[in-house]
Design goal:
The chain has helices spanning about 5-15, 35-40, 170-175, 220-225, 320-325, 360-380, 385-405, 405-410, 425-430, 430-440, 465-475, 490-495; strands at about 45, 65-80, 85-90, 100-105, 105-115, 125, 145-150, 155-160, 175-185, 195-200, 210-215, 230, 245, 250-260, 265-270, 275-280, 285-290, 290-295, 300-305, 310-315, 330-335, 445-450, 450-460. It is of the alpha/beta class.
């Protein structure tokens, strides 16, 4: 029996044997609720559920309704980052789960359906519910089964929902969280665009960017050391072609939540100021003119702002290594006429965005095209080796953009008297092993490159980059700006990484 099958069986036994651990265990079915006549007479409607970053349309009715919500749990393999896959546990097939929109006073008939392909039971705790476990005790649902309960939406606000089946951090850490909006009876002020963004962390066995199918690492989760902290379930989920959009003059509202399971967010949009922030998503008393808002794990906020100038505005967790090194970064692309009195400068420089800049996005697309070519050519001819090298160059370009070209510059010419050139560098090209050691171990002190001595510091990257990433970035550098060289391999890097100096 494969290891993951054994693990799933043990986990299932743990869940079924100790449901009271998190107060999420199954409860006996009490039969359909007897609704009073005034509730039975309410109109019935099916809830519109949307995947992130989309939001269901505002509720136009001025009366309560009986709203039927059908939400399906699916366990499915998906993209966590380029070349990295993960088995996500989802509500509605997405991370975060489907956005649910109801109105204050609505009576909600909630159906949780666990797909037959699931390996584990799941449930749901909606923070909008007044009742035991937020519905968790009523929705413990085995694979291939469906659970139902009814609640009244008593309090307006934006609320997190999540799975509460033991071990709870693992279920949330695999992507089981989302938002439910309970609109106030009087409704929300109209805006032009509404979007749905949630932050969450993933505790993978491998480092950030380590390719292949990754699994959940409970030790990292307990120590709160996530390799990934991302928006909407994956690195790059809101960049490039997937960025959210608006036009100059429009008012934008973002429902922002943190699924966790552990990390608080400092939500910020670079180049924008929030005209209104509803802290902790209470929808009662907004704060005005806010730069960054703190959103706790298991909490939410609503931010509103008017976009006054065109450009690309960057969504980040302002604990910035999370944004630029772990994935908590997105884009709002605003189109329209510039107003140089309001802002006279250029659009944000790609250096600041690292591998998620436009060039990085283009490189990722090219990498995908090359992978498809390789799959086709594998059946036919030996041109594969050349394609593999070209793919390494594209992957290495993404690493270079994320870590290197602020100092060494996009043209590889470096900064005079500060950082040495990589283009036609006699020092670098003379010794390939030395180049690997410098990337891994760093370099401090004077070096002479093309006749010029530069006294600088290159920080070590062995804790940041995998062997494959080092090989890729050196293959890129050794084959760009007029440089020529063979591809580097992960095995070559590994051999030097393990050497002591």
């Amino acid at each position: 029996m494969k290891k993951h099958h054994v693990y799933s069986s043990l986990l299932l036994a743990l869940v079924l044997a100790a449901p009271a651990f998190a107060n999420e265990g199954p409860s006996d079915a009490a039969g359909p609720v007897v609704l009073p006549p005034e509730v039975q007479s309410l109109p019935v409607e099916q809830a519109i559920l949307t995947s992130p970053p989309h939001v269901p349309p505002p509720i136009a009715r001025k009366h309560s309704a009986r709203v039927v919500v059908n939400l399906e749990v699916r366990e499915q393999v998906g993209r966590l980052a380029d070349g990295v896959e993960y088995t996500f546990w989802t509500f509605g097939g997405s991370v975060p789960g489907s956005f649910i929109r109801v109105r204050e006073g609505d009576v909600v008939e909630f159906h949780l359906n666990n797909h037959p392909s699931s390996r584990l039971p799941h449930n749901i705790d909606l923070h909008a519910v007044t009742g035991a476990g937020g519905g968790a005790a009523s929705t413990f649902t085995a694979p291939g089964h469906s659970s139902q309960f009814t609640f009244t939406a008593l309090n307006p606000g934006v609320f997190v929902y999540h799975c509460a089946t033991a071990p709870v951090p693992m279920h949330i850490g695999n992507g089981m969280y989302g938002l439910i909006l309970v609109e106030p009876k009087e409704g929300l002020p109209p805006v032009d665009k509404e979007y749905y963004v949630m932050q969450g962390e993933f505790y993978t066995t491998g480092k950030f960017g380590e390719e292949g199918l990754q699994s959940f690492d409970m030790a990292k989760a307990i120590d709160e050391r996530p390799p990934y902290i991302v928006f909407n379930g994956s690195v790059g989920s809101l960049v490039g072609d997937k960025a959210i959009t608006a036009n100059v003059g429009e008012h934008v509202r973002i429902y922002f939540g943190v699924g966790g399971p552990n990390i608080t967010s400092s939500f910020h949009i670079i180049g924008e100021i929030f005209d209104k922030v509803y802290p902790e998503a209470g929808l009662s008393l907004p704060n005005a003119n806010i730069q960054t808002t703190m959103v706790p794990s298991g909490g939410a906020a609503v931010v509103e702002f008017k976009v006054d100038v065109p450009g690309t505005f960057i969504l980040v967790d302002h604990s910035l290594t999370r944004a630029f090194n772990k994935g908590a970064l997105g884009m709002l692309k605003v189109s329209g006429e510039a107003n140089r009195v309001l802002y006279s400068g250029k659009e944000i420089d790609a250096v600041y965005l690292g591998a998620q800049a436009e060039a990085g996005s283009d490189s990722a697309k090219r990498e995908a095209e090359l992978k498809a070519q390789i799959a086709a050519e594998t059946k036919a001819n030996p041109v594969i080796a050349g394609l593999t090298k070209e793919m390494q160059i594209e992957k290495g370009k993404q690493v270079y953009m994320g870590l290197c070209f602020a100092c060494h510059q996009p043209d590889g010419k470096g900064l005079p008297m500060a950082f040495p050139p990589l283009a036609n560098s006699d020092y670098m090209l003379a010794d390939r092993d030395r180049a690997i050691r410098i990337v891994l171990k760093g370099l401090t002190g004077p070096v002479t490159v093309n006749g010029t001595t530069i006294n600088s510091v290159m920080p070590p990257q062995e804790a940041v980059l995998t062997d494959a990433q080092v090989a890729d970035v050196l293959t890129y550098v050794f084959n760009t700006w007029g440089n020529k060289g063979d591809a580097f391999t992960a095995d070559q890097v590994k051999a030097l990484r393990n050497q002591s100096h």
